[in-house]
Design brief:
Elements (H helix, E strand, L loop, with lengths): L1 E5 L6 H11 L4 E3 L9 H6 L1 H20 L8 E4 L5 H10 L5 H16 L12 E6 L2 H11 L2 H4 L3 H18 L5 E5 L5 H16 L2
Helix pairs in contact: 1-9, 3-4, 3-5, 4-5, 4-8
Length: 205
Amino acid sequence: MKISLAGVVGVGKSTISEILKQTDNDIVIFSEPVKKNPYLNDFYNNPKDFAFRMQIFMIMERSKQLLNIPKDKDVIFDRSIYEDKIFVEVLKKMGNMNITDYKLYMDFYGMLVQENLYLKNDIVPDLFVYLKISVHNAIKRIKQRARASELIVDKAYWKLLNKQYYIWYKNIKKTNNVIKINMNRISSKRAAEKIYKIIQNNKKK
């Protein structure tokens, strides 16, 4: 079963992934390429100059992940390529990506990603888990994990990102299998337990 964890920065995707891996070592985790991202720190310090390069890097890394999915394992994506356009929309709305780069990115995404990757049924997630959280709680978690590059980001960015994620959730659930977990109300451990139960039930089918 292929499951994509979807949600804003700080919602707990990586923690949930780690708990699932500890619960069942056979689960394959495709983590977000944070440590190997050469643009991350520069992007947060100077988003206008690095927005396009940052997003192209992310989409290429996620494309590689999709092409390396094992067919006989349960797979968890710590954010998927389906969500990349959310960040691009936020960057454009905040004036951090110009219209030329925006259009080029969308053309690239549409022609090379949607046309070539989405048509392959064996790589489309079986389930999207939308992890909902308030802006206040997301920022609180971001401060707790204290990644220097994230701490300098203005609250307006996190607020708009949260809003765009909810719009994305309302749209994607029309055509895909999606569940919502309210992370304002439960712990990452409890969320992981819910997801693992879904994986176990799927094996019984």
